[in-house]
Amino acid sequence: MTILPSTSHWGAFLAEVDQDGELRVRPHPADPAPSPLLDNLKATLGHRSRVAAPAVRRGWLEHGPGPDERRGRDEFVEVSWDEAFDLVAGELQRIRTDHGNQAIYGGSYGWASAGRFHHAQSQLRRFLNLVGGYTAGKGTYSFGTSMVLLPHVVGEAHSVLFNGSTWPTIVQNTELLVAFGGVPAKNLFVTPGGVTKHTMPGHLHDLARSGVDIALVGPFRADLPSTVEARWYPVRPGTDTALMLGLAHTLCAEGLHDKDFLDRYCTGYDEFERYLTGGEDGVVKDAAWAAAITEIPAADIVALARRMARSRTMITVTWSLQRTQHGEQPVWAGIALAAMLGQIGLPGGGFGHGYGSMGDVGSTGPDVRIPALPQGVNPVREFIPVARIADMLLNPGGQYEFDGSTRTYPDIRLVYWAGGNPFHHHQDLNRLRTAFARPDTVVVHEPYWTATARNADIVLPTTTMVEREDFGAGRRDTHLIAMHRIAPPAGLARDDYAIFTGLASRMGVSAEFTEGRTVRQWLEHLYQGLGDEVPSFDDFWAAGELVLPQGETDRTLFADFRSDPDTHALPTPSGRIEITSATVAGFGYDDCPSHPTWLEPEDWLGGPRAQDFPLHLIANQPSTRLHSQLDVGPTSQAAKVAGREAIRIHPADAAARGIADGDIVRVFNDRGACLAGAVLSEELRERVVQLPTGAWFDPVADHPSGALCAHGNPNVLTADRGSSRLAQGCTGQHALVQVERFDGPVPPVTVGRRP
Ligand SMILES: Nc1nc2c(c(=O)[nH]1)N[C@H]1C(S)=C(S)[C@@H](COP(=O)(O)OP(=O)(O)OC[C@H]3O[C@@H](n4cnc5c(=O)[nH]c(N)nc54)[C@H](O)[C@@H]3O)O[C@H]1N2
Ligand SMILES: Nc1nc2c(c(=O)[nH]1)N[C@H]1C(S)=C(S)[C@@H](COP(=O)(O)OP(=O)(O)OC[C@H]3O[C@@H](n4cnc5c(=O)[nH]c(N)nc54)[C@H](O)[C@@H]3O)O[C@H]1N2
Ligand SMILES: [Mo]
């Protein structure tokens, strides 16, 4: 047995298959803080949730394509690869001829696996582009709202998201870190594409010892490691904007705002000030006003504002805050507040977005450009904002607004998914099931019988990253890792590349798709994109890794802008930070007005819905896995309570409901219900519960209490609505719910094995 290198989104590793056929995994030797998620990889090989052979839904096989309510409820019939290829190629051909390529939805959002060549979405798009294209999905679930908003406010998004002050700069220069959403350590093991050295735990350790004063703003104390001392402001979820406005009003009322900075570097502060002081709507947004909304005492708000004005202050906002209804506002208000402090562009001061959301935010080192599989050009221009998938399927021809334009949903006949799990990532899963009944055909490539595979017509089993050859690295990685094949493919699984090669040959584009290359030849070809200075591919492959050139980069867009706002004008219409945006004002959206504004969401504790559903659910990222990936793995399973996903609930809220630690509870609202295992925790503020995403959706048919997920997927509870007409971003982070002890006969969780 040889131990071989590979990498994952949560870390590089070495692995071998032992005598019992089990995968043994150990972290990369250079990793100072390996991720506990590595253990989940043990569930990869031969797990009973693997898709063993191509499978076709019986109803589709017998009656042919068409809308079908039984999708997701039917049984599957295994077929040969040849039959599967004939069916998929024939159906693609039919759709193209009868409806045109825009009737194919190839957005296929999702994280798939690390590895530059076998990146499932790139493979899918390369293939679809060669056969006439597809309707695309624009943006991300991660920061889709900020991606649309930030260009209006500061001209572009990338610099804000990925090129802010580095952690060492913050540790050295920042005096006060005001962290909206904290710096959740659990998230920092993950970087898309791979990560060799986890440096964040070290940075957090340095932060703890640095004496930086920290204000943790958020409903969940665990969003900052307990080893990092902080003052906790347990704000009501979804009200951060009101808190920021209260802070801004205090700065303004006490003359603590930096008028020179606002004059020289910003536009539209006066309108914003008029709004703060009540000139716009008669409501003064002072600390007392903010206190009533946020439940943070007014005196604390005033004191915090004064402290912010006195210190080198970094305001950070996690991405979770924009994954909510009106999620544009906390990001825009955070920037306005930082502008009032006049520290944007100073080392360790200003505004940061996503510190604590991803392993590479605030990381040092250059952005490495690792070669990727060319996708070609999509001849179809049609797209949707990615999180509008169910709306699109349910309303063909329907109109909606997006970033200043009115658009029409295309009529989708075929949905093609490879490398994502919409029955993990999308909101209101009961609605999504209805939406998935609409197209003629759903094709899914998956290694596992996820809920998305179960809701397909044709499921094509794919290899996992340990069953094929590739190479991978993250955006700011230190190493390019040779991903060796560690085990043979499970069952009849094939690489996404092999599957598309089979389809391409049936559709007459095989030479264009493969360019005549084997997998190994593709790897060699892509590797050449690194230039002449690197060792030969064979040497790289034998060594198992390549150390990437590193350099310190802490020169931010805003530092240049600060040095000279004319030479380095921002790419906004005014060249300045737009605290008020004439462009956004021109769109006339009441759900995203011209400047940062407090807008009540539907799901918040201060609104009328809270009478029926009095607990605020935080549906955040799981600490025990990446999204839904390897939910059947040991790290993920070890944290389940009574076989269900764990829901954290404050002891007072639990006591009021007769719930004890370890009880199975039913979490519900008017959209759906799921079971979960109660964990009592004082780390939450009262009236907040936390149930992370990622438990594989396991709907119980005909349960007396209505649609019920036996396993604990919070997306049965979240609302399927865009952030606003501006960004139409995902709003899955929040939902109002009720929780009760579940005393009925407990339905088993069955999603972890083949259907
Ligand atoms: N309520 C709520 N919902 C959310 C969020 C939230 O905060 N709250 N967050 C959102 C965010 S930020 C994100 S990014 C999304 C994540 O949503 P997704 O990215 O869709 O979630 P994953 O579980 O990573 O799905 C990846 C799927 O690809 C499969 N896969 C892995 N490797 C391969 C491969 O090589 N080939 C193929 N064909 N398949 C492969 C995996 O088995 C898995 O099923 O969730 C979103 N959903
Ligand atoms: N272990 C692990 N790490 C991950 C991922 C994973 O699945 N697992 N996913 C990765 C991906 S794709 C992404 S996009 C990032 C996402 O990064 P984020 O979106 O930042 O992560 P979340 O965990 O969803 O949310 C962070 C914290 O925000 C807090 N929060 C929620 N609502 C509010 C609010 O209204 N106000 C305040 N002040 N705080 C609030 C929650 O308590 C939560 O723990 O994480 C990445 N990292
Ligand atoms: Mo994400």
TrEMBL record:
Annotated Molybdopterin dinucleotide-binding domain residues = 615-730
A molecular function (GO) term: molybdopterin cofactor binding
Q: Which Pfam families does the annotation name?
A: Molybdopterin, Molybdopterin_N, Molydop_binding
Q: Specify whether Oxidoreductase is a keyword of the entry.
A: yes
The answer to keyword Oxidoreductase applying to this record is yes
- Domain Molybdopterin oxidoreductase N-terminal: from-to ranges: 6-43
* GO annotations of cellular component type: outer membrane-bounded periplasmic space
An example Gene Ontology biological process: anaerobic respiration
Superkingdom in the source lineage: Bacteria
Q: Which UniProt keywords apply?
A: Metal-binding, Molybdenum, Oxidoreductase, Periplasm
**UniProt-listed InterPro entries:** Asp_de-COase-like_dom_sf, CT_DMSOR/BSOR/TMAOR, Molybdopterin_N, MoPterin_dinucl-bd_dom, Mopterin_OxRdtase, Mopterin_OxRdtase_prok_CS, Prok_Mopterin_Oxidored
Needed cofactors: Mo-bis(molybdopterin guanine dinucleotide)
Domain spans labelled Molybdopterin oxidoreductase: 50-505
Provide the family line: Belongs to the prokaryotic molybdopterin-containing oxidoreductase family.
Report the protein name in the record: Biotin/methionine sulfoxide reductase
